[in-house]
Amino acid sequence: MQNHFSSYRWRRYVPFLVFATVVAIVQLYAIAIKDPHFIKNAIQTLSNTKNRGNETLGPLHVLLVSYARTGSSFVGDLLQSVPDTFYHFEPLHFISNPVLNSSFDDARVLLNKVFNCNVSSIKGYLPWIQLHKEYMKLKRSLNYWKECSKKKKNLCFNASFVDSTCRKHKTVIVKTIRLKLREASELFLTHPNLNLKIIYLMRDPRGSINSRMKFPVSMWCKKDPMCSNPKYYCDSLAEDMKVACGLLKDRPEDFLIIRYEDLALDPFGTTDRLVKFLGMPSMPRDVEIFLKTHTSVIGSVREKYRTQGVDYAYSTFRNSSITAMSWRQQMSFKRVTQLQNYCQTTLTGMGYYPYYTVSNLRSNVNFDKNNDDAIRSYCSAN
Ligand SMILES: *[C@@H]1O[C@H](CO)[C@@H](O)[C@H](O)[C@H]1NC(C)=O
Ligand SMILES: *[C@@H]1O[C@H](CO)[C@@H](O)[C@H](O)[C@H]1NC(C)=O
Ligand SMILES: *[C@@H]1O[C@H](CO)[C@@H](O)[C@H](O)[C@H]1NC(C)=O
Ligand SMILES: *[C@@H]1O[C@H](CO)[C@@H](O)[C@H](O)[C@H]1NC(C)=O
Ligand SMILES: *[C@@H]1O[C@H](CO)[C@@H](O)[C@H](O)[C@H]1NC(C)=O
């Protein structure tokens, strides 16, 4: 009676199994009460690990290329809300502000080191960051700051700790407003070992120029023609358009154009494109939470942000649809007409329509919802 015997033995363990199951359920319940997203996150982490697959390529390097007052801090924060990322905020500020023609090679060398989690080999970089705490280079790397603050405070400014933390992550992100697209995209050629993807963030130049006229941005903006001289800025954007057409043709998998207005009006749809471009099958939960909490003004968030030492002008908490469009109520029609002349190429290529009457300016959004079509037809005609 072998069968009878073994089933009898099995039954002896039933009380223990029941006990263990109850303990496990109680534990899980306690965790789930503390962190309602725990189970969902755990499942997501497992599926992300499964989806990694082609790990031979090593970490992904994402460069966000943009200009002053285009929403680049917002997009930077959106990108660093993706799990398992390390974010570098404006490392090129270290070279000079703005980065001059003679320094583009240095800029690319520096970016290569930053992407390779090798800031300890950049002479003077961390001491400079520590000396200029007001720029908050590391504080704006939110995950890192959380991590290093848990330990001794001065560990945050320890280059080898920055590097070792950076190396633990699957994706390294750099944001810059200090390189034009041509200089940035040359990284593909000068540093082919990088596993590089470039995101080019565009905003209607009429909107970003309007925003630059305001204090405190206007203070530093004066020193940089890219920021303060609309003619110079528009000419540079037109040059970017040519480069962008080439990249869209040659490297469609490594180059993406995102418009700030699309993000403001349709944060979820636009972010979906962004995460797909980065190779994720669906929008991570953390990114969804970021969008829900950062694309609208909530209560006294502005005050709260200020007490953390961040000037509201640079904060990413705002009603994004108001901010994106407010220039239309603020700028004189004459000024708008002038900028439309300077920036004609970019407006056409990026699907921003010109305004010919004041009433249209004040009341119509008037940009092409399908940016891809606008760019494609611009590129094929030029
Ligand atoms: C690597 O990627 C290629 C192309 O996307 C795919 O066909 C292949 O199955 C992947 N390999 C692994 C191990 O996931
Ligand atoms: C930088 O170089 C470009 C082209 O090489 C030139 O048109 C531009 O005037 C230069 N800018 C400065 C500030 O030297
Ligand atoms: C960091 O950069 C230095 C100097 O360029 C180089 O010798 C070293 O191999 C780099 N380390 C890593 C881990 O890339
Ligand atoms: C910096 O951090 C490393 C570990 O990441 C540690 O070995 C080293 O002693 C630290 N240096 C200082 C000056 O604290
Ligand atoms: C943001 O502003 C728009 C336009 O006025 C408005 O429709 C929307 O409800 C606002 N969103 C929030 C969350 O306040």
Automatic annotation (TrEMBL):
Query: Does Membrane appear among the keywords?
Result: yes
Give TM regions: 12-32
Q: Which Gene3D superfamilies match?
A: P-loop containing nucleotide triphosphate hydrolases (3.40.50.300)
Task: List, alphabetically, the InterPro entries matched.
Answer: Gal/GlcNAc/GalNAc_ST (IPR051135), P-loop_NTPase (IPR027417), Sulfotransferase_dom (IPR000863)
Per UniProt, residues of the Sulfotransferase domain are 61-351
Tell me the Gene Ontology biological-process terms attached to this UniProt entry. N-acetylglucosamine metabolic process; sulfur compound metabolic process
- UniProt keyword annotation of Membrane present: yes
Q: Which SUPFAM superfamilies match?
A: P-loop containing nucleoside triphosphate hydrolases
Superkingdom to which the source organism belongs: Eukaryota
Q: Name one GO molecular function term.
A: N-acetylglucosamine 6-O-sulfotransferase activity
Provide the alphabetized UniProt keywords: Membrane, Transmembrane, Transmembrane helix
Query: Can you name this protein?
Result: Sulfotransferase domain-containing protein
Organism, by scientific name, is Oedothorax gibbosus
